[in-house]
Design brief:
This protein is α/β, with parallel strands linked by helices. The protein has one domain: Rossmann fold. Strand 1 and strand 2 form a beta hairpin. It binds adenosine-5'-triphosphate and magnesium ion. Adenosine-5'-triphosphate binds next to strand 2 and helix 1.
Length: 269
C-alpha cells in the first residue's frame, strides 16, 4: 500500500533569535502522520509544541528541514500559495474558539467557504451539514454570545471540517472548557476519527491525550516518545501498525534515540 502521509516532517529545526539570544525551540523533529491517524502531542511548557503546531499549520516556517503537507513541499510556496493551501488542507481549532461576534453560528461556519468562493447555496448546505455533525443544527441562528463555551467550540469544529480538510489541527481545544464540555468535544473527536479524519491535537491534559490513538511527547525541542495508545481503535484508513513506517517508534523507521543523536549532530544546542 502506498498511502501519502498527511504530515511528513524531516529534520525540522526552529531557532528564534540569533547568537547568544538564540532559542532552539525545535532541535530536531522527524514525524510522519498518516491519513486517518488521531495523534496527541504533549509535553511540558516550553517543550516546543506550539512551535511545532505553527510549522505543521503553515503559520511559520522551520529554520531547517523539510515539511510535506499531503505531499506538498510547503517550503517552495510563496505567502499567497501558503495561505491558499492552509485554507484548503487544514481545519484549525483553537482554545479560544475564535468566533466572529454578533454573527450567527451558521455564518461563522460558512466563512471558510466564502474565502474558498463556494457559491452561497452550496455554502449554506455544507455549513448546515457540518453543524448537524456536531449536533448543533438547531442552534444555527444563535449568536456566539448565546452559546455556551462547549457549544462555541463545537461550532468551531464545524467550521474546521466544513472545507473537508485533510488535517484537523487543534491547539488546546479543551483548555477553556469545563469537564462536561470537554467530554462533548472529545466524543466529537472520536466520531470524526472513526469517520476517517486525520486529527492532531496539542494538549496539556492527560484526559485529552489518552483519547488519541497515538501519543507524541516532546521535551526540549525533541520527541521524547512516540507510542500507540489505542491500537484497537484505528480506522480503515490507518496504515497497519506493522507497516515499516511504524517500526522503531512511528516515524519512518527512525527511533527516538536516533533522533536524539541526530539532534546532537546538528550542532551545539
Ligand atoms: N516568537 C518567539 N520568539 C522567541 N522565543 C520563542 C518564540 N516562541 C516560542 N519561543 C520559545 O521557544 C520555546 C518553545 O516554545 P513553545 O511555545 O513552542 O512551547 P510550548 O510547548 O507550546 O509551551 P506551552 O505548553 O507553554 O504552550 C520556549 O522556550 C519559548 O520561550
Ligand atoms: Mg504552547
Amino acid at each position: 500500500m502506498n498511502v501519502r502521509p498527511t504530515i511528513r516532517l524531516e529534520g525540522i529545526r526552529k531557532t528564534y533569535g540569533e547568537g547568544d539570544m538564540a532559542v532552539h525551540a525545535i532541535r530536531h523533529v522527524d514525524l510522519t502522520v498518516m491519513p486517518g491517524e488521531y495523534v496527541a502531542i504533549m509535553g511540558a511548557s516550553g517543550s516546543g509544541k506550539s512551535t511545532l503546531m505553527n510549522i505543521v499549520g503553515c503559520l511559520d516556517g522551520p529554520t531547517a528541514g523539510r515539511y510535506l503537507l499531503d505531499g506538498v513541499d510547503v517550503r517552495r510556496l510563496d505567502d499567497n500559495r501558503l495561505s491558499g493551501i492552509r485554507n484548503r488542507k487544514i481545519g484549525f481549532i483553537f482554545q479560544s474558539y475564535n468566533m466572529i461576534p454578533r454573527t450567527s453560528a451558521l455564518s461563522n461556519v460558512e466563512l471558510p467557504l466564502v474565502y474558498a468562493r463556494v457559491p452561497a447555496k452550496e455554502r449554506r448546505e455544507r455549513a448546515i451539514d457540518a453543524l448537524d455533525k456536531v449536533g448543533l443544527a438547531q442552534r444555527r441562528n444563535h449568536m456566539p454570545s448565546e452559546l455556551s463555551g462547549g457549544q462555541q467550540q463545537r461550532v468551531a469544529v464545524a467550521r474546521a471540517i466544513v472545507t473537508n480538510p485533510v488535517l484537523l489541527l487543534a491547539d488546546e481545544p479543551t483548555g477553556a472548557l469545563d469537564s462536561k464540555s470537554t467530554a462533548d468535544v472529545l466524543d466529537l473527536f472520536d466520531e470524526l476519527s472513526a469517520a476517517g479524519r486525520t486529527i492532531v491535537v496539542i494538549t496539556h491534559e492527560d484526559e485529552v491525550g489518552s483519547r488519541a490513538q497515538r501519543l507524541v511527547v516532546m521535551r526540549d525541542g525533541l520527541i521524547l516518545s512516540d507510542s500507540q495508545t489505542r491500537p484497537g481503535s484505528t480506522t480503515a484508513l490507518v496504515v497497519p501498525a506493522q507497516a515499516p513506517e511504524r517500526a522503531g517508534g512511528g516515524r519512518h523507521g527512525i527511533s527516538v534515540e536516533e533522533q536524539h543523536s541526530r539532534a546532537a549532530a546538528d550542532g551545539p544546542i
